[in-house]
TrEMBL record:
Keywords: Cobalt, Glycosidase, Hydrolase, Iron, Manganese, Membrane, Metal-binding, NAD, Nickel, Transmembrane, Transmembrane helix. This is 6-phospho-alpha-glucosidase. Pfam families: Glyco_hydro_4 (PF02056), Glyco_hydro_4C (PF11975). InterPro entries: GlycHydrolase_4_CS, Glyco_hydro_4, Glyco_hydro_4_C, Lactate_DH/Glyco_Ohase_4_C, NAD(P)-bd_dom_sf. Signal peptide: none annotated. The record marks E111 as: Increases basicity of active site Tyr. One of its GO terms (molecular function) is metal ion binding. The active site is at D172 (proton donor), Y266 (proton acceptor). Residues 197-417 form the Glycosyl hydrolase family 4 C-terminal domain. Gene3D superfamilies: Lactate dehydrogenase/glycoside hydrolase, family 4, C-terminal, NAD(P)-binding Rossmann-like Domain. The chain crosses the membrane at residues 6-26.
Length: 443
């Protein structure tokens, strides 16, 4: 029997992650055959550079795959099976603001955590809902797999405002960390084991890691993390910047706080906020690292390919980010029943946590979507932290929906990274000014 061939739309075609994703779709096309790849972006020039290079890569390596790109929603979203979304609303210039404004007030400045994450959330909600609407209008049977951050806030918004849509919100951080864990104990990658995990996005814990014979590997990984955190194993993956290495080292301190489980290293921003602020270079943040690093490298490489009219020697390779979303597309298309960590409505899976919270949990994925695995009760420490964080995220979505300054201020106050209502207001008022083109008008 002929295998189904999918038509893929990458929304945010100008993303720095797009070339790796295209490399993955080419590499994996026997398992997940593709008939068409299209890009969609609202920045024509930025997308064109990535698209012209990808057209050359595809012509050389997979000429049977049709390729096109557009800034027109109808053209882009028509005849699509899977939308892979990776928007950055406001691009790196706004990420820089998300990081630098909080730092001025001695508060964590980060892409998805703390006030920066909430500000980014208010920028992302509208454009992601817009993608859902385009997909439903032009390709109503398609699935939208969303990487656009901040995934927690975006997921709460899609749960609330598009409850029946075929959208799955995802994050590559659990799989990136699982690949690092695999390397720590000398395994090839995460596919050598099966994990149990619970939490919110960028806010969770692994409770078990078992090999395919059922042997528990968590104690061995835990012994390593207790001593070293994650060190050199980090840089073999996609997170190479200096600040990432610091984040991965924090696993050691996080292990002292919770030795039973393995913590998502993003918890550092909440549980070690003072140290994070003290050690941060507040003038040169991760946004600057990426502008001068990944973004520059990706666009220079695309330009080199375009100038040479060949990609035979390209440095673009697939990565964890690309492999996870491709696995998900494959599971939905071919009913593989793969176990994957997704951001989903709790609905009792964590029995002592809000039913209507968007949590990050293992799921079984098949052609009708996902089934969430039941976790049961979680301990008081994690539950308390998660309740505070989910309240902050929900208040941010309330603020967007109701155009409410008060709700957004409360979202900031509720966030564990912010010490007081006064500091919350100062940060919010500065953020309000620079976010005016993107946020709804708050009153
Ligand atoms: P990027 O700035 O390189 O690319 C984002 C693209 O989105 C840009 O080309 C931009 O023009 C486009 N865009 C912005 N607003 C748009 C809109 N309204 N409509 C159409 N296109 C729009 O960013 P990047 O670093 O490649 O990251 C892309 C996204 O993926 C970010 O949200 C990032 O946080 C997210 N990401 C998520 C994960 C995860 O695991 N959840 C991991 C990595 C990256």
């Amino acid at each position: 029997m002929n295998k189904k061939k999918s038509s893929i739309l990458i929304a945010g075609g100008g993303s720095t992650y797009t070339p790796s994703l295209v490399m993955m779709l080419i590499e994996d096309r026997e398992r997940f055959p593709v008939r068409k790849i299209k890009f969609y972006d609202n920045d024509e020039q930025r997308q064109a550079v990535i698209a012209k290079a990808c057209a050359i890569i595809l012509a050389e390596r997979a000429p049977e795959i049709e390729f096109d790109y557009s800034t027109d929603p109808k053209e882009a979203f028509t005849d699509v099976d899977i939308v892979m979304a990776q928007l950055r609303v406001g691009k790196y210039a706004m990420r820089e603001q998300d990081e630098k404004i909080p730092f001025k007030h001695n508060v964590v400045g980060q892409e998805t955590c703390g006030p920066g994450g909430l500000a980014y959330g208010l920028r992302s909600i509208g454009p992601v809902l817009e993608l859902v609407d385009y997909m439903e209008k032009y390709s109503p049977d398609a699935w939208l797999l969303n990487y656009s951050n901040p995934a927690a806030v975006v997921a709460e918004a899609t749960r609330r405002f598009r409850p029946n849509s075929k959208i799955i919100n995802i994050c590559d951080m659990p799989v990136c960390l699982e690949d690092i864990m695999a390397r720590v104990i000398g395994l090839r990658d995460r596919k050598d084991f099966e994990t149990s995990y619970f939490g919110l996005n960028h806010f969770g814990w692994w409770t078990s890691i078992k090999d395919h014979d059922g042997n528990d590997l968590l104690p061995k990984i835990s012994t390593h993390v207790k001593k070293y955190g994650y060190t050199e194993q980090t840089q073999q993956g996609q997170h190479k910047e200096t600040s990432w290495l610091e984040t991965m080292l924090a696993a050691k301190e996080l292990h002292e706080i919770e030795p039973t489980f393995l913590s998502n290293t993003y918890l550092k921003y909440y549980l070690m906020a003072d140290e994070t602020v003290a050690h941060a270079d507040k003038q040169y943040t991760r946004a600057n690292e990426i502008i001068d690093g990944r973004e520059k490298i990706v666009f220079e490489e695309c330009q080199r390919i375009i100038n040479n009219q060949t990609a035979k020697d390209t440095l673009f390779v697939s990565n964890e980010h690309a492999s996870f979303i491709t696995d998900l597309a494959c599971a939905l298309t071919f009913n593989t029943k793969e176990r994957m960590i997704l951001i989903v409505e709790n609905n009792g899976a964590i029995s002592n946590f809000n039913h209507d919270a968007m949590v990050e949990l293992p799921c079984i994925v098949g052609k009708d979507g996902y089934e969430v695995l039941s976790i049961g009760e979680i301990p008081t420490f994690q539950k308390g932290l998660m309740e505070q964080q989910i309240a902050s995220e929900k208040l941010a979505v309330d603020a967007w929906g109701q155009k409410s300054y008060q709700k957004l201020w409360q979202a900031f106050i509720m966030n564990k990274t912010i010490p007081s209502a006064k500091v919350a207001k100062e940060i919010l008022d500065e953020m309000l000014e620079v976010n005016a083109p993107y946020w709804p008008e708050l009153h």
